[in-house]
What we know:
The complex is a heterodimer. By secondary structure, chain A is an all-alpha fold.
Amino acid sequence: xxxxxxxxxxxxxxxxxxxxxxxxxxxxxxxxxxxxxxxxxxxxxxxxxxxxxxxxxxxxxxxxxxxxxxxxxxxxxxxxxxxxxxxxxxxxxxxxxxxxxxxxxxxxxxxxxxxxxxxxxxxxxxxxxxxxxxxxxxxxxxxxxxxxxxxxxxxxxxxxxxxxxxxxxxxxxxxxxxxxxxxxxxxxxxxxxxxxxxxxxxxxxxxxxxxxxxxxxxxxxxxxxxxxxxxxxxxxxxxxxxxxxxxxxxxxxxxxxxxxxxxxxxxxxxxxxxxxxxxxxxxxxxxxxxxxxxxxxxxxxxxxxxxxxxxxxxxxxxxxxxxxxxxxxxxxxxxxxxxxxxxxxxxxxxxxxxxxxxxxxxxxxxxxxxxxxxxxxxxxxxxxxxxxxxxxxxxxxxxxxxxxxxxxxxxxxxxxxxxxxxxxxxx
Amino acid sequence: xxxxxxxxxxxxxxxxxxxxxxxxxxxxxxxxxxxxxxxxxxxxxxxxxxxxxxxxxxxxxxxxxxxxxxxxxxxxxxxxxxxxxxxxxxxxxxxxxxxxxxxxxxxxxxxxxxxxxxxxxxxxxxxxxxxxxxxxxxxxxxxxxxxxxxxxxxxxxxxxxxxxxxxxxxxxxxxxxxxxxxxxxxxxxxxxxxxxxxxxxxxxxxxxxxxxxxxxxxxxxxxxxxxxxxxxxxxxxxxxxxxxxxxxxx
Lengths: 427, 250
């Protein structure tokens, strides 16, 4: 190879830092612009909007869990209180307040920030288990208070507003779902960029240090509880932004938006996706929202499937789904992914058998226990059968058994294949 | 006589009914390299924890450059330009070596709790972190997670965290513990260089290191200082020989 060719090759592999950093963002913008053209149904766009809101919330949550090592069991209160702040301001807008509806997520963020500072001040003096317990207690407290202050929170029915009541700005009225989609998309991108930038500031790095070893941080001149408070406040701000987006989308905030279920759901999103990377919670939010919105149309047991999925991920992929993806990074860069295809295809067969057996068992039980009025005749995977027949049960158990045995036989071979390929890729 | 950089006055520490430090008076002069020696369990590490605010004192006082710092939090004492290393490696295992050092230089460069500027765009932080990285000989390991370093490398990083903020007073707790002979030589050379023009208080078991490095030596036995003097006088001190040095083949 000539010297010039060598130089150009070196230049190509070492693209400027800003360019390499810009590529994923440009890709994200392209995807965001393309998606509503691909998913034109109201259902599809609702799903996309929900995903965008969940992404902001999950990444905000990971500012605490993954970046600073703080496990919060009650983070939905900042989502919910932010949303309530937004919906109340929306009502003021309807009453004549001159504020563009597009800025409501900022109102939500400020709401989240105020309560984040208040409750963070109380909880971040402690770390670890004590911190987690305080967040749980605060959540119960806020839910109880919200039920008492009925005129502010509207109880089970909630507080509603009208997002089209605002002043028209550049022809955007939020009457159409697509307007809401783009509003969510813009706020999501801005929030993600800001949260990403935060991890690269001095305090962002100190958050990692506090996660790794809070004691040592003290001997470098910093108060770890102060750093925890900043992380908590930042996380609450962006949780509030997500709540504000939720308020604009549904034009309604109810008590269930700040309680235990949503708090648990965001924890699942972050954990399933993987808390060790910025992309992890994004992936988790997309997946869990999909399960929640899409699956709940098909089966009442979606929460059970979600729980099962969560257990599987924590058991077999402790770094989350993104960890599984990143495991393949060196192999993909070496262009050797095809070498894994056969092994993965082999593992897919017993995995599908196991999944089919489990789903059959869950659905049969749900039909018999929860919806007995529909009768025992049911249809699954295109097969009609009687839920009370011995055959249905035996086949289901056989599928589960065959799947488990098959996976046990195949798993070591898949792992060995992956190890071999990785070594080739590294060589 | 130079003014004291660090002064301990009637320092006591008890854990429950057990008295660990039983009235320590000690003074480290400014610019001095001072070694603290003593048999296992004498309370050397406890004394370090008391000086640096990790444990509260039961009674007594600690003064830095004449200022009473008794009862201050560790980060407040650090801000008065006293930094330390730990006997048991105490680093940030999931962060790279370079990130470890960047966190360690931030406060001394006056960046405080800054979250509005990107750390990559802070030339002073990056220059200082890079300089420390080279100084402790870990330049080739810059991007390796600190938890994956070899033992001696982790010890070097431990010293690096202590010196990164350019403190006036450095406390090193057994910096060469567990090192091989050549690694120890390396470490001593490093300590000699970084303590140039600063005050050093070091706990060390290796007598060759102690007598080669220290201007003064204090001997701690069962929570009390039994001697504090120049190395040759410590070597000749009968009480010290009985309590401690006699057990070490000279």
